[in-house]
Structures are given as C-alpha cells and as structure tokens.
C-alpha cells in the first residue's frame, strides 16, 4: 500500500511539474507575442457581426469599437483625442482590442482643437490613426416659434447640432440640406422652412447629423394648421377686435406694438408695468369666451371627446420687448370645468423665452397640467364641456416679484394641439 501511495504521489508530482512547464511555456509564448513588434492598426469597426467587413473613421460617444490589427496583445492603453479609454485584457487578442467610447472623451462639442486621433500603446510602441470622435446624435429640446410657414426661418434649440446634414420637415421629400446655420456651442440651429411642407405626413421636425438623427416628440412639432381657438384675425364664435370675451381692450389687438411685429395679421398686445406681487388689472388678461354658449374649441377628426386629455397641449406664441428682467413673470392658463372647479397652470416665461427683443416664442402646456388640487381633465370631452354652458379659456400675465416689471408683451395663435396620436 505504501508503494502504491508513493507511485500515486510521484505521478501527481509529475503532472504538477508538466503543468508548470506548460504554463511557463505559455507565459514565454505570450511574452514573445507581446514583444514581437510595435502594434499596427488595420481598421476599426463596430462589434456588430453584420459590420465585419466595414471600416470606421469616426464614432460617437457611447459607441463600442473593435480595433483590428497586429501585435495588439499586451495593449496597455487606447487613447481617443489623447483621452484614455481603459483596456480590459479580457477583450484583447493579438489581432483585436474592444473598447468603449465613454462620455468623457473630448469631441469638437467641447474642444474644437481636439487632434481627432486614435492611439494604441503596448510595450513595443504605439500605433496612431486619424479617427474622429463625434458628439451624440442631436437633441431638439425646443422649437423657438412653432407657428411657421413655407419661407419662414425656423429656429431650434437643443444639443449636439454639429456636422448637420439634413433637417426634415413634414411631407414627402420636404427636407433642407443647405443654408443651415448653427452656433459654435451646437445649441441652436436655424433653417428656412421648405415650400413643400405637407402636414398630412405629420408635424415633426427632425435633425440629422453625422452622429445620427434626433428623436421626435411634443417638443419637435410645428403648427399643422389645426386646432386654432384665437388667432385675433379670423371671425367665428369669437369676433375681433371686440366680441371675443373680456380682458384687454380691443384697441390693443393690432398688427404691431412697440418693439413687436406680428407673425401674421393682428395679435393681442399689452404695454404696461405689470403689477408686483400678483397684482391685478384687466389689461393683462385675455379671457376667451362666447357668452351665448357657442363652442369655441376645436372638434371633429383628431379631437374626439373620448381621447385622453393628456394627448392634447394648449399652445400659443408670446413676444416680449423689455430691458428689464422677466424672471418672476408667469403666464397662467385658466379654465373652469363643468363641476365648478377652476383649473390652472402657470408657465414661468423666462424658462421658455430666451430673448426679450420682441422675438416670438411658443409656450406650451399639456392639458392635464391644468389642475385644482388633485382635480384635472380626464378626456377631451371634459374640456369641450367648459363650465357646463360657456366655454372659457383665460391667459393672465402674473408678476410674482415685489417690483413692477415694465414690458410690452404680445400673445397670438392660442390653440389646442393634438400632440400625441
């Protein structure tokens, strides 16, 4: 039994020794491969197997890249625009390195002087290739003025408006590829609305850059010529300039006010020191109502009573001309429902209106933002009822500060928009 044990023990030692030799040889082989020579980069592609034959010369933040070449085993670091990406040895072979482009990599969005290079380093040297790191796909956060028509300038606010290729509008082949201007921060874009806009195809604007296309949603819509309640020009259930409800004088419904020109036709103007501390006067109020009970809100296709109220936005344009700060100025949207509840929502105007030079901006509020405690509208049919007889919608300028604010203010194109289908 002792002999057998010794034999087994000797066998175990031999196996262990052999394994040690194999590991040692493997280590030597790996070391030899690491030190074969400086790395070379043949091409870069994504990790998607369907792109196996592709070659990239640029990528966006957040991308995962496969760097293909030779002598890559032992890669110590990969740099994009001299920023280290970090290397996981589990994703390194002699012919490939997989890395992820983190959000901290500098791009032209943060530094216009980036070198636009990809650099891979191992013990034997480094390989460098021209490679452009791009910002993410563009994001549209605000359409400055949604009430635009063919030939008008449209301004978008957002992020990553770099290397813009195309701006798409509603309609077949309604797009622009030239005459697009952006600021150096990539946060604004201006383009002329093309002649062939067709709202039967939708109402969204989309920006496409070398990094991809912007998403569409409520904040990327333009006016689709539907849902108007008050344009201060067209007579119907409301008649201009006097038979439309109450508030500011009909004399203030004009095609211009000091420092403000109309978008089209007339608009409602206010020229005053807006009273401090929530002070009141009728000249800062637009209360739309037909006292005979005639429906003033849009009906028909797209405005079915059973549609959830959350699918609709109340929108209008506002222009302000003042040298004073508008911090603390709010636009209140007010509506009385059929149960006697006064629903309201206040929009801080400084959050939307970026310049007080008389330029027009679109203000928007989802219909369900109008609340009284926990009470809100559930369906569009609730909105159509009004107070059970008269249909009313009120806009009031409110000054929440302790000082009067002198300003000229215009309001136009009050409408209900089907924002979600």
From TrEMBL:
GO molecular function: polysaccharide binding
InterPro entries membership: Ig-like_fold (IPR013783), SGBP_B_XBD (IPR040475)
A Pfam match: SGBP_B_XBD
Keyword Signal carried by entry: yes
Signal peptide start-end: 1-26
Residue ranges of every copy of the Surface glycan-binding protein B xyloglucan binding domain listed in the record: 223-418
Sorted UniProt keywords: Signal
Domain of life: Bacteria
Protein name: Surface glycan-binding protein B xyloglucan binding domain-containing protein
Organism of derivation: Algoriphagus locisalis
């Amino acid at each position: 039994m002792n002999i057998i044990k010794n034999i087994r023990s000797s066998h175990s030692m031999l196996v262990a020794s052999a394994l040690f030799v194999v590991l040692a040889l493997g280590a030597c082989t790996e070391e030899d491969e690491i030190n074969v020579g400086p790395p070379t980069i043949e091409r870069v592609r994504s990790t998607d197997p369907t792109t196996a034959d592709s070659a990239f010369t640029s990528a966006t933040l957040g991308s995962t890249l496969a760097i293909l070449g030779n002598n890559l085993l032992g890669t110590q670091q990969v740099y994009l625009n001299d920023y280290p990406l970090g290397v996981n040895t589990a994703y390194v072979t002699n012919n490939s390195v997989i890395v992820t482009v983190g959000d901290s990599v500098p791009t032209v969005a943060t530094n216009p002087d980036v070198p636009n290079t990809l650099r891979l380093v191992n013990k034997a040297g480094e390989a460098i290739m021209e490679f452009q790191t791009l910002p993410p796909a563009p994001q549209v956060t605000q359409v400055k003025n949604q009430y635009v028509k063919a030939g008008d300038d449209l301004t978008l606010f957002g992020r990553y408006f770099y290397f813009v290729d195309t701006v798409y509008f509603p309609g077949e082949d309604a797009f622009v590829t030239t005459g697009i201007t952006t600021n150096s921060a990539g946060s604004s874009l201006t383009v002329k609305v093309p002649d062939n806009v067709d709202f039967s195809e939708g109402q969204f604007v989309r920006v496409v850059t070398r990094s991809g296309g912007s998403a569409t949603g409520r904040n990327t819509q333009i006016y689709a010529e539907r849902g108007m309640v008050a344009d201060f020009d067209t007579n119907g259930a409301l008649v201009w300039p006097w038979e439309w409800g109450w508030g500011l004088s009909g004399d203030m419904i004009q095609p211009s006010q000091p420092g403000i020109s109309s978008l089209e036709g007339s608009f409602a103007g206010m020229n005053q020191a807006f009273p401090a501390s929530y002070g009141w006067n009728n000249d800062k109020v637009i209360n739309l109502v037909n006292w005979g009970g005639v429906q003033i809100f849009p009906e028909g296709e797209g405005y079915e009573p059973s549609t959830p109220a959350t699918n609709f936005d109340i929108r209008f344009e506002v222009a302000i001309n003042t040298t004073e700060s508008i911090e603390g100025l709010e636009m209140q949207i007010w509506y009385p429902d059929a149960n006697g509840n006064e629903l309201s929502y206040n929009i801080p105007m400084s959050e939307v209106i970026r310049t007080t030079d008389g330029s027009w901006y679109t203000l928007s509020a989802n219909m369900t933002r109008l609340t009284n405690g926990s009470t809100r509208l559930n369906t569009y049919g609730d909105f159509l009822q009004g107070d059970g007889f008269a249909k009313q919608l009120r806009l009031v300028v409110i000054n929440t500060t302790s000082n009067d604010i002198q300003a000229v203010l215009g309001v136009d194109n009050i409408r209900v928009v089907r924002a979600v289908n």
